[in-house]
Design a protein that fits this description.
By secondary structure, this protein is α+β, with helices and mostly antiparallel strands. The chain contains six helices and seven strands. Strands 4-3-2-1-7-6-5 form a seven-stranded antiparallel beta sheet, with helices on one face. A hairpin with a 2-residue loop joins strand 5 and strand 6 (195-200). The longest helix has 37 residues, at 76-112.
């Protein structure tokens, strides 16, 4: 979750998390220690965000002789454009390598400060840092908010389902845009295979998502576990009936909310 950007925090904290992971994997710093790849320690998207935006290429103006459109598209001018793209890509990759080396150096310096810390301590410190995010313990789903009284158009959000409330986050932001306790939810369910509806008091929110069933089942689980009566469901909504058996609550960050979570993690921490 940390490596994929689903734990919003500062770059300084991300570097400390990487250092704690190194301490857990390799114990105290040593030049002979086996180093994981940077992308196994630090979110790659943070490095990519430092790169300059691609510049818009302008078409050169020909003065004098007129060149045919076919020549411009597939001849000499096409070769010039291809060369420019290759040079720009090479510069970007060079910049990315520089940023990666700088980040790894900062992580190693923090790792050196952890000398003497045991693996259990490193793991506990790692989790303590991650728990500082208010959304810790929630299951996150990528959704597009299609309809809302407060928004004019579709908006990409995280739908966080936790033990006490449902929250909406802008991706990467620490605090939720809004949060709804379960007692405020009047109904929820699937309008169709890709649209999930959540009715909160006098508000109706429609989310486009590929995980309609997962969201409905998880909401049902938390409503049952908190003792909240299952909200009445309109005829066009399809949610699973509440089970009479005590539900098993999901643990940790975003359990089983995404296919990639079934991949084996690298090292002792969830990736």
């Amino acid at each position: 979750m940390v490596l994929r950007g689903y734990v919003p925090t500062s770059e300084e904290t991300l570097q400390m998390l990487a250092a704690l992971r190194l301490q857990s994997l390799n114990s105290d710093f040593s030049t002979h220690a086996a180093f994981p790849r940077l992308e196994e320690l630090f979110p790659p998207h943070v490095l990519h965000a430092r790169l300059p935006a691609p510049q818009h290429r302008t078409t050169a103006k020909c003065r004098g002789a007129r060149l045919r459109v076919g020549l411009l598209a597939g001849g000499l001018w096409g070769q010039v454009l291809a060369k420019q793209r290759a040079e720009q890509d090479q510069r970007l990759w060079g910049r990315l390598r520089e940023e990666g080396a700088s980040t790894m150096a900062a992580i190693v310096e923090k790792w050196k400060l952890l000398q003497g810390m045991g693996r259990p301590e490193a793991m506990a410190a790692y989790v303590a840092l991650v728990r500082e995010w208010p959304g810790f313990g929630s299951t996150l789903f990528d959704v597009d908010l299609r309809e809302s009284p407060l928004e004019a158009g579709p908006q990409r959000l995280w739908l966080g389902i936790g033990a006490k409330a449902v929250s909406l986050y802008k991706p990467g932001e620490l605090e939720p845009l809004d949060s709804f306790g379960y007692s405020r939810i009047s109904s929820f369910g699937a309008s169709n295979s890709s649209t999930f509806r959540l009715s909160v008091e006098d508000r109706d929110l429609l989310f486009e998502t590929s995980q309609v069933d997962e969201i409905a089942q998880l909401l049902n689980t938390y409503l049952t576990s908190t003792g909240t009566q299952q909200p009445p469901q309109p005829q066009d909504l399809a949610t699973s009936p509440a089970s009479s058996d005590p539900p098993l609550l999901p643990q940790g960050l975003c359990p089983k909310a995404r296919p990639w979570l079934h991949q084996p993690p690298v090292g002792p921490f969830p990736s």
